[in-house]
TrEMBL record:
One of the GO BP terms on file: enzyme-directed rRNA pseudouridine synthesis
Classification of source organism: Bacteria, Bacillati, Actinomycetota, Actinomycetes, Micrococcales
Record-given protein name: Pseudouridine synthase
Enzyme class, UniProt record, top EC level: isomerase
Gene3D superfamilies given in the database record: Alpha-L RNA-binding motif, Pseudouridine synthase I, catalytic domain, N-terminal subdomain, RNA-binding S4 domain
Positions with biased composition (Basic and acidic residues): 81-98
Keyword NAD in annotation: no
Organism: Arthrobacter subterraneus
Length: 427
């Protein structure tokens, strides 16, 4: 005989003992009868004195076994709804009705599996882009560049010198990339290794530069990574910048003060360039061009004789920039007159550019650019128009600027600056 529950909850609302009730016994044996009695899926409750075994109802009349609802009518087993009626197992929606298993969307409809979208609807699998770009795609596709280092500036990590960018030379028809046999020297050194040793960039970036057609050897574009060249004879350009591979060559920028003569030694004992060389007195240097003793500014020094000859030869027309202070005011039309040309004792001389920089009561500051290398030509030009020079400073020679360099100091030119200087005279 079945023992009735001890608690008061063992009796149903009618006060009967379900243990002896044949209808309650049949209700325990058949779930259909329980469903018909409660209308909630399963009849009976723990308070009615039903046993807790498999298929027995738990408080709310729902059996605890497989397929039985948990409090709110959601079953525990596979495919059983969880609170909101959605099944928990594979393929079953998670709270929001979206299945959690493979191929099922995660919260916002993006599935976890391969090829499934990740929140924003973009698939996350092998073929899915991450952050809008394909994972397997090259970096160029993501960055919009041709390669991983496309656009990398040569000598970008150089500590000394100034960044002058690429050399902008007159446009000319580009020769197609040549076969490696035309410039290849089996006894030479790999091109990318030479570039890396010259400080252009890392070897990997240099390889990308070669692939992108940014490197020329002896005037022809090379795109083959297997090319070997002789560094002692090959002329290598990167973005138009010539690589100086001769480590014995030195290049300096000297900001000459007023009163210093442009010579290495002066028999009259006046201050000269060698007085500022200090530890460099043992080097044999040439000064590129001259500045008279009263003129200040940029003076280039080097032991490269070929470069010195080209920079001073009038056929290359290397521009030089000067700041000129004269007595003011200056009459209108002086600049146009100097651009057209003024007759001097040694022929007609002109300026390439004339620009008024500043004007104060009694003084005018003018910037002029000219390529002529005649003796004292700037002073003679201003004397001819009735404005004698009060102060004259050279601020730029070709691509090299004096900038904020301290007067009387000497600095080493960077490799990029040297490359621009060599390219300016077609070296």
């Amino acid at each position: 005989m079945t023992q009735a529950p001890r608690s008061g909850s063992g009796r149903n609302r009618a006060g009967r003992n379900p243990a002896t009730d044949s209808a309650g016994k049949s209700g325990r044996d058949a779930g259909s009868a329980k469903s018909a009695r409660t209308g909630g899926g399963f009849a009976g409750s723990k308070s009615a004195g039903a046993p807790r075994g498999a298929g027995a109802p738990k408080r709310d009349g729902a059996p605890r076994g497989a397929g039985a609802p948990k409090r709110d009518g959601a079953s525990w087993g596979a495919g059983a709804p969880k609170r909101d009626g959605a099944p928990r197992r594979a393929g079953a929606p998670k709270r929001d009705g979206a299945p959690r298993g493979a191929g099922a969307p995660k919260r916002d409809g993006a599935s976890w599996g391969s090829g499934a979208p990740k929140r924003d609807g973009a698939p996350r699998g092998a073929d899915a882009p991450k952050g809008g770009a394909s994972k397997g795609a090259p970096k160029a596709a993501r960055s919009g560049q041709r390669g991983a280092s496309a656009g990398a500036a040569p000598f970008g990590k150089e500590r000394f010198g100034r960044n002058l960018g690429a050399v902008h030379r007159p446009r000319r028809p580009k020769a197609p990339p040549v076969d490696r046999l035309d410039v290849h020297n089996p006894e030479g050194v790999r091109l990318q290794k030479i570039m890396a040793s010259a400080g252009v960039a890392s070897r990997r970036v240099c390889e990308d530069m070669i692939r992108d057609g940014r490197v020329e050897v002896d005037g022809t574009i090379v795109t083959d990574l297997g090319v070997r060249v002789d560094p002692s004879s090959a002329a290598i350009h990167v973005d138009g910048i010539r690589l100086q591979l001769n480590e014995t060559m030195v290049y300096y920028a000297f900001n000459k003060p007023k009163g210093v003569v442009s010579t290495m030694e002066d028999p009259e004992g006046r201050p000269c360039i060698s007085d500022f060389l200090k530890n460099r007195k043992g080097e044999r240097l040439f000064h590129i061009g001259r500045l008279d003793a009263a003129t200040e500014g940029l003076l280039l020094l080097t032991n490269d004789g070929e470069l010195t000859n080209r920079l001073t030869h009038p056929s290359f027309e290397v521009p030089k920039t000067y700041l000129v202070q004269v007595r003011g005011p200056m009459a209108h039309g002086i600049g146009a007159q100097m651009k057209e040309g003024i007759e001097l004792e040694d022929g007609i001389a002109s300026v390439d550019s004339f620009k008024l920089v500043d004007s104060t009561p009694g003084h005018v500051l003018v910037e002029v650019v000219l390529h002529s290398g005649r003796n004292r030509v700037v002073r003679r030009l201003f004397d001819a128009v009735g404005h004698p020079v009060e102060r004259l400073v050279r601020t730029q020679f070709g691509p090299i600027r004096v900038g904020d360099q301290r007067q009387g100091s000497i600095r080493v030119l960077g490799r990029q600056e040297v490359g621009h200087l060599l390219a300016a005279v077609e070296m």
